[in-house]
Amino acid sequence: MSTMKRSCEDRTAILDPEQYKVAWIAPLEIEARAALCLLDERHHGRFPVSRGDDYIFEAGVMGGHNIIIATLPAGQEYGNGSAAALASQLKKCFPNLWFGLLVGVAAGLPNISRGRDIRLGDILVGLPDGNSAGLIAYDLGKEIEDGFELLRHGHSLAMTEPIVLSAIGNIKLQAPNERDNFLPYYEKIANLDHPTGTFADPGQDYDILYDDESQMIQRSSRPAHKRSRVWYGPIGSGDKLLKNAEKRNLLRDKYDLIGLEMEAAGTINRIPVGAIRGVCDYGDRHKNKDWQPYAAAMAASYARSLLDVIRPSLPSAFDSRTEANQQQRTAGERFTGRESFLKALNEMAFGEDQVNRIALVGLGGVGKTQIALQFAYQVKEKYPHHSIFWVPTLSGEGAERVYVEIARRLGVQKTNDDDDVKELVCQHLASGKAGKWLLIVDNADDPDLILGNGENPGLERYLPLSDNGIVLITTRARQIAVDLAQSDVLYVEEMDREEAICLLTTSLIHKPQTGNEELILQLLTKLTFLPLAISQASAYLNQNKAPIRTYLKLLGGAESEVSKILGT
After folding, report:
1. CATH topology of domain 18-309
2. What is the pTM of this model?
């Protein structure tokens, strides 16, 4: 079977809504511009629309995530009602949404007496307080004898996704130095042009706070290295633009708010979002738009840093593997070494002379699956528009089940009961309708199952051949590797000494003390430098909090028992 060369990536196709899992809602134009400037890659093309759809969405990649950027049309009034309509269409059009971020500008609510010296350009992050979602719809409720009672006591129907809260908590742990996470992103866009200027800091000399008597409050300038600060707490959301210092202070004190904005309450009852806001004014009569570009850029930069903390999810067909494979995926998070194989795979798959079939061949335990797994992660991060499918081939029944799942994910259906789902999937992937893809065929060791015999065709028959996709096979059998990939075969051997030491030491919770180098080498020699054996050994040492010397004794005891049984 010949190996096909693949053409350059086509960027003109209609964008597939199912491939996008993160919604970035930026209601104002300047907020959307800041978001677009931070894209790692902009996706050209458009999402399909139908009658009744009111919004056009931008798309691209940030931190390996496929992102939808949603903003309100020019001229549309902003507020909770408009934001709710925008969020409703997002929910309707993108069925696989994982989480959302509401990113833009807001009024900051300083409280100097409590040490809350919020400045223009600071970042406000909505965080839960008790059962609150970190967002208080302060003008939704009813009047009762004791006064105004908030609807659901201020709690929103949809909470912020736990993964977003966890990522915020991860960055918050670094306070007050969390600025190191987001300032590099701000510096990247600070001097970029937009229709009214740039995103540059207007300067602290122009940051003036008044009390409710219109008296200026004296505040010293922050040192340059502490110019920006992040504040965490409840953010108020209402439908009216607030330009009244007295009412601002009443709301601040009643609900302990750090800021006020006009879209979150409408959004979060449709889709759960994390609210991230840059301070552009103080909610008083001195409000203007001068600080909006800088504030929008700061909020966008913080949101961008959040996406670095949240690792992209892999496509569903990749996730639908056995528990054992899920454990392998977890081990892949600690992947180390084997850079030469990953480099070779990337060159073969995406280099100048691209091929569409590659095989990894080697003994059991040398790390073929881990190399394939890490390659899948790299493809997902570098080329997030690619679909990734994982087919374990330990049995024909298992492979059949995975093909059924892939068919379901692709929307491929039988037209009659005699249709072979594997054939349908193969035809669909080969036709180009599925876009770009990577198909990993793991543990392809059984010649009858893979290559077929007189009675049954092998799985080889159902491996698509297309300039849109890559098939990566892992196998112990050289015959299978050569039959499927011809000369595009990589031979995987045991790790070298440095790779093995690196894998062991990075896998151990309690790092070996200096002076244990000889014990480490003894252990690795006993394990014959096999990645699987090293991973199993490190798991035992971690679970039992055992020193390396103990594991060596266990290995020695096992060898003695074997010698007794064999009579040697």
Report:
1. Rossmann fold (3.40.50)
2. 0.57
